[in-house]
Amino acid sequence: MVDYTTSLLTDLSEAEYTALAQYMAAQTSETVAQRVLYLDNWKSKSGRVWLAKDGSNIVGSYFVVPATSIGYIKDHIAFNTYLSNNSISLSSCVISLDIYVDSSYSGQGIYTQLKANRGQYNIDEGYT
User: Fold this and answer.
1) What is the dihedral of CA 15, 21, 26, 29, to 10 degrees?
2) Of the N and C termini of the chain, which has fewer Cβ atoms inside 10 Å?
3) Is the pTM of this model over 0.70?
């Protein structure tokens, strides 16, 4: 049975943080050390992760950060014009960075559930 949780990166225990870095590295061709550096970068910028777990094993993740924490997005003229033209504040937007589902769990609706959980949370928190 797959369970779903969400947490700011700052709220993960050291063991959970390491497990997330290991899981993300296994989904890409990067090393665990590279993924720790990646997570460390976003940890200080209010990064949030939704996890799908089968027991203690991570089998899916959906990672987002507030749009205001990405310099490129804050300075992107076309994006900010679009937001302004639609009466949307940059501070009400989040950006999806990484979405992974373990291939052995493919086709079980994990991505759909992670996306739904992330979407509902963001609506509840006032994000557009």
Assistant:
1) -150
2) N
3) yes
